[in-house]
Amino acid sequence: MIIDLTNGTVEDRLRIGLIGYGYWGPNLARVLDHLRSDGVDLVAIAERDATQRMRASEMFPTGDVVTDGTDLIHDEGIDAVVIATPVGSHFDLAATALEAGKHVFVEKPLAATVAEAEDLVSLARRKDRVLMVGHVFEYTEAVSYIKRVIESGELGDILYIRSLRVNLGIYQTDINVLWDLAPHDLSIINYLLGTEPTSVSAVGQAHVTEGVPDIVNLNLNFGEQTLATVVVSWLDPRKIREMTIIGSKKMLVYDDVSSTEKVRVFDKGVDGPGHYESFGDFHYAYRYGDIVSPMLEHREPLGEECRHFIDCIRLRKEPRSGGRSGLRVVRALAAAQASLERHGARITLDDPLTREVSGRVDRLLIGRGAE
Amino acid sequence: MIIDLTNGTVEDRLRIGLIGYGYWGPNLARVLDHLRSDGVDLVAIAERDATQRMRASEMFPTGDVVTDGTDLIHDEGIDAVVIATPVGSHFDLAATALEAGKHVFVEKPLAATVAEAEDLVSLARRKDRVLMVGHVFEYTEAVSYIKRVIESGELGDILYIRSLRVNLGIYQTDINVLWDLAPHDLSIINYLLGTEPTSVSAVGQAHVTEGVPDIVNLNLNFGEQTLATVVVSWLDPRKIREMTIIGSKKMLVYDDVSSTEKVRVFDKGVDGPGHYESFGDFHYAYRYGDIVSPMLEHREPLGEECRHFIDCIRLRKEPRSGGRSGLRVVRALAAAQASLERHGARITLDDPLTREVSGRVDRLLIGRGAE
Amino acid sequence: MIIDLTNGTVEDRLRIGLIGYGYWGPNLARVLDHLRSDGVDLVAIAERDATQRMRASEMFPTGDVVTDGTDLIHDEGIDAVVIATPVGSHFDLAATALEAGKHVFVEKPLAATVAEAEDLVSLARRKDRVLMVGHVFEYTEAVSYIKRVIESGELGDILYIRSLRVNLGIYQTDINVLWDLAPHDLSIINYLLGTEPTSVSAVGQAHVTEGVPDIVNLNLNFGEQTLATVVVSWLDPRKIREMTIIGSKKMLVYDDVSSTEKVRVFDKGVDGPGHYESFGDFHYAYRYGDIVSPMLEHREPLGEECRHFIDCIRLRKEPRSGGRSGLRVVRALAAAQASLERHGARITLDDPLTREVSGRVDRLLIGRGAE
Amino acid sequence: MIIDLTNGTVEDRLRIGLIGYGYWGPNLARVLDHLRSDGVDLVAIAERDATQRMRASEMFPTGDVVTDGTDLIHDEGIDAVVIATPVGSHFDLAATALEAGKHVFVEKPLAATVAEAEDLVSLARRKDRVLMVGHVFEYTEAVSYIKRVIESGELGDILYIRSLRVNLGIYQTDINVLWDLAPHDLSIINYLLGTEPTSVSAVGQAHVTEGVPDIVNLNLNFGEQTLATVVVSWLDPRKIREMTIIGSKKMLVYDDVSSTEKVRVFDKGVDGPGHYESFGDFHYAYRYGDIVSPMLEHREPLGEECRHFIDCIRLRKEPRSGGRSGLRVVRALAAAQASLERHGARITLDDPLTREVSGRVDRLLIGRGAE
């Protein structure tokens, strides 16, 4: 239980329950467990799989380990719920938890449809609870640094962003590669630009599982000014996480795989033609300059993210990656999904088609092959 | 003049005229000049710009240097014409030369419209002359090696190709980045797959010159089986020429910028799910394996290309990158241009729209901003 | 207690005590703790520093945490002792533990002088206990792979090895950079070549702490055939761990910092001149060939190492990096130290001077500046 | 002929003769030929090998091509002689040319012995002619940039330099790898530090040709303050030219093989312990900071070098890499050679032993195997 700080009373410890101890859950458990000195207790873990439950018991002998997430949600001793289950179950679990008055952290993407995401946002508002999405890259030092560089104006206007997020596997069975990997790019790009795309288009192909695209090429239009292209793939010989940001003054490359130089700022650019009488009569001034790799402090982004969730609960703040941010990402994913199913046709984010698609793979599988 | 080899007579020397001594022409001149011992004489150069004409005279004191390409074309002492002018003039020069009975080599792209390219192909056939396009990458050792690897079956079926061809500048004033850089990717991919795309889509944006896209994201569909994505840009901090080829058995990365390891073959792959009762019930077998960088002999591709042109003239062969190959590339460019102008709508290669667009930038500039 | 397997009796659990919970001890503790299912119990930790003792208690609430390593050594419930203290205390602790009948694992280097190392080896033999040194790289998949490649003859005769092991910090206060970093290179190279150097020479310089070299350039002569050069430094802008191995048939580069391609085999070489009449009359045949990066399975070397210690105790085997291997490394370090103090003079490994030096920095500091 | 500029008279064209058209000579010929607009004429080439003479005639149809360098030296129409022959002939040719009143440019190293180099320096002084050595790296933009950075104090005191210059082949038959490759490192390091080593030591080994070391590990002591280590090898799978410079304030890496980032400045360092009571009682402050890759303009160093030679002739300046600079490099090579032959013993540069060795391989081969 949390005591309002404005009353000057001391605060209780914050008690967290974790639902889902599969691929990502153990990481969240470990990080939450390390927040003990911050007044946080991971008191219970819910997991359907028996083997994983046994592992959870071994790692967290002091916490309850249960099968059903709903039991955990209705535990009155729990203040906040962290959900790390397949996306198909996000809505039910998060909605139930919010209804039960819990603060909720959901792994990305927030939900499988726009309607679900909207409902969660309004439910959180109505119940006055914190709703946060696990857009973990927004909590990295690299992305924070790039955000500051952009806001300082050093790069000038952002003209173009190209992102490449590919590797071999790990195939998801419940979502396609768009819903699996692109939430990272969408959350980073939306965060950096401080807005969301106006329209998107996407082309992809399914090679391993019929109907489940494992390679997607995505275009994001931010008005007429800025274009972003994102390629996500589960079928690539190398692990690449690389974002190139073209500003009107400088350019920046963010290589998340590099251990020592994640961000490099290129003092390169081009000055437009200016006034000229006849075509062919001018020269562009290319500016080539120094390259700077700034020293970035190492922080564990997952730790930053979890601490931010706790802070938002305590201070009743809207999280950096709050429900609305999660909704924006789901809206772009839905538009991209609609485009995928229409051979790459451009879809605006307010197109009704975005309300007809879902990130759940079982729906995708029924009756049509994704393009 | 060429004497039919089947008659057993000796062959004359082959006399070449070069039209265009701007950006690329000097390279062709240098290479042609080195073919002297192969019985080739570069006898004349035509160039409109006085300064460049002076440079040509200095470098090739023994050849004629004239202003007008047409004069050169009508020179009876010349057997073959090499055209390295802006794309807008390719058709007129090449058609005139073919009509005059010359063999013709044209820099890429072959022409600015599908109709022009088709006319050149049929004209060459009618006049029984060699028509070749400067798809120079088809003459590199790296692409030849990759072609052999694909044909050997070592990669399995080709599922996906991703190409990135970006750098800062050099802006062209007569064409956009699609017509400038993508001919390389299209010619390489068509050559490797032995076919042409069935449909394409493209999204781009113009930042430096209004109406002239300097960044384009292109999708190429080869039937339902194979997808290729190509990003070309004049606005990037790094020079990148990288193609990733995903086969069903192995994967390959072709990095043309690397001096020592242009090709790397990854023994990585994935085996599909096979038969299974219930969804979620299976495991994919990811295969991780060795990486091999084959030793490639160094050959100058431009020299290979010019020698191939000469061989085709002498042996009356259809060149590897003959007129039909050039037409295929122009058709894909035209479809991509039509898609660019329609927000990335998918355009099939036989769509009548492909006959309404041109690679000439002046047409593009009139009345519409490219998307 | 261990029951002889040959008697067919079941074996007891093996009880381990760890002395030293400073920089490296926590890693050993974590790994030993994970060996529980292998029948190993980490039952006690000794550490002089109060803060570190507190941390040890937090991480291992079920084990005893004491101040004095000697108490732990004399604990009759303990079968084996793992020593991760500064090198100056290795001998006293290890000797006491062997005398007490414990099996002993000591972090590298085994001891600070040749005499100490020799005494430990003979003590272990006399007491019939396992004595093992923490030459951790011998337990990496990369070094194991290289060992197999060399033994297969694929590289031919080993002509030359060059190793570079540099980074910024972490400065040790009790030893110089030679005794800190070079044990890794010496243990790897001795292991790969299956022998030890016949003579060494070393040049270095102290920049941060007077008399404590932080950069050392070391030559190792293995007979007249094979030379190895090793540069170790605490004063470098990049972290580099790179070993180049030149064989008469092939060459190999081992880059321990690379996450994906630690080993690369170059099919490059040179064929000697053979017979020729006059000097200048011959051509060497340089062989350039493919490069192969073998796929290496990921294993935690520290886990492999600890498991090997356990296996050796149970099976009464001499460890791969047993006392004799540790003695060889200390002997080479002592010869290099003697050379360092003599401006790089070549010192054979049986030179009496090797018995007059010590790896302890306090001795080094007294009365002379290391060269 | 050159007219003294102080007399205000116009200057004649400068007429150059080139001796040696083997491996390096053609590069010098090409560059000298391009200096025509600077008033320089390459009027004659001497080369003993008939095939190479034929090539020279083809490339320079307007110049004389002769067999014997002496003929060229005694040609009164020639003002300056450029010598690109094997090192064994440097002295005779250069001395004869200086005696004949020619200005002389000699490829590195200046001569095969200290005595020869000294004689050339004093001869040039006596005859008042320009004597310059082809230390080409001193004319690169990268080395010039590093020189400016060091002189600005940005790096602080230079503590250590490590250089690696290795590749597979090209084996020289007249000199060992020390005399072939290390002149580059010595000239660069001497130039950067503005001084020469006080003592050196070197260890090497011969694998391909008996008695001709193909791998050498060299230490250069610049007083007690600065150490440099240099590894040169003809037996390495990769071409590496990398110099790491450790300053007391910043560190720098110079990678000559990189096409885009030859120099990188690391804002990294370490602050010493300062005052402290007891040993072990202090912490070093490691400073980690940004990395900057400065933009370097591209210049052809060989062109810069030849132009500098011309300028020095015209302005009667001592060249940057003049005879004295060449002598310093030969002196260090001789000391290193003496050390090589004495198992790496430290040799001071004024040691009489430096006068007993030669870079000529035939002397090396007689009677002893290099170490």
Please describe what this structure looks like.
4 copies of one chain form a homotetramer. Chain A is of the alpha/beta class. Chain A folds into 2 domains: 2-135, 3-Layer(aba) Sandwich (Rossmann fold), CATH 3.40.50; 138-301 and 330-364, 2-Layer Sandwich (Dihydrodipicolinate Reductase, domain 2). Chain A has 10 helices and 17 strands. Chain A has helices spanning 25-33, 50-59, 69-73, 90-99, 114-127, 141-151, 177-193, 301-315, 323-340, 361-365; strands at 14-19, 40-46, 64-66, 80-83, 103-107, 131-134, 158-168, 199-205, 215-222, 226-233, 235-247, 251-255, 263-266, 269-271, 285-287, 291-293, 347-348. The first copy, chain A, has a 9-stranded mixed beta sheet with strand order 16-13-12-11-7-10-9-8-17. A 6-stranded parallel beta sheet of chain A has the order 3-2-1-4-5-6, with helices on both faces. In chain A, helix 4 (90-99) packs parallel to helix 5 (114-127) and helix 5 runs antiparallel to helix 9 (323-340). The termini of chain A are far apart. Chains in contact: A-B, A-C, A-D, B-C, B-D, C-D. The interface between A and B is large, with 50 and 50 residues.
